[in-house]
Amino acid sequence: MNKIKIVTDSSAELTPEEIEEFNITVLPLSVMIDDVVYIDGENLSKVEFMEKMPLAKALPKSSQPPIGKFIETYDALGEDGSEIISIHITESLSGTVNAARQAAQLSKTNVTVLDSLFTDRGLSFQVIEAAKMAQKGASKEEILARIEHVKNNTKLYICVVTLENLVKGGRIGRVMGAISSLLNVKVMFELVGGNLEVLVRGRGMKPINQWITSLIETLKSKTNIKEIGFSHAAAFEYTNGMMQQFKEVFPNVPMPVRQTGPVIATHTGKGAFAIMYYTD
């Protein structure tokens, strides 16, 4: 049986400890700010990006790793006869998975490329589960089945407190954006099948906070929550306080809080936060 190795991209928001412990290969995404290209996590930190973004002349543009970098990585990992499962940010937010598919066809290594349909910790759920199974010597078929199970039992909710970047990125109309800004509208989305669907829209944070309270009540009926992850775009105080609300109800469930990377923050804008969980 060939050994299986796991590859993902930097939008997964894995910790350095997780990457090392589970032997995961992470290819960095990049972002261009005023014609200068930065590599996620290499020459641009999350904090630095949040400082640069509001000062940029235009909305930063994110980009997937070059196909050549994928091929180089796949070939190197497969030199010992290993096969690869490469799991990536949803196609609706990035061209990364398409670049990976093209590279897989050109690589000397046997590579299976998957669209996670998620990002951030929602993506990491699949990556970590796959990596754990690979370390235990599971077959590719067993790992793929587990990934599909995790994907089907994952939820990702994201709250955008300003629609400015969504307007600039063409994801909502300018008229809607202007009205929402004038009325201080906050929006809670769910990422479903790679697409953002509106769950709650209202003036100020009160409707959002009420929805979060109802989510906690809903989760009380579930006894098999594996992780509840939180991420934010320069909104640590609010997100950490929200996490404490969940922790009081689910003290034994892992609840990492991470600042999201440049690719996601570009879409959401400053102040956004996300709640992600999966059940088994």
UniProtKB/TrEMBL annotation:
Signal peptide: none annotated. GO terms for molecular function: lipid binding. Coiled coil: none annotated. Keywords: Lipid-binding. The keyword Repressor does not apply. InterPro entries: DegV, DegV_C, DegV_domain_contain. Pfam families: DegV. NCBIfam families: DegV. This is EDD domain protein, DegV family.
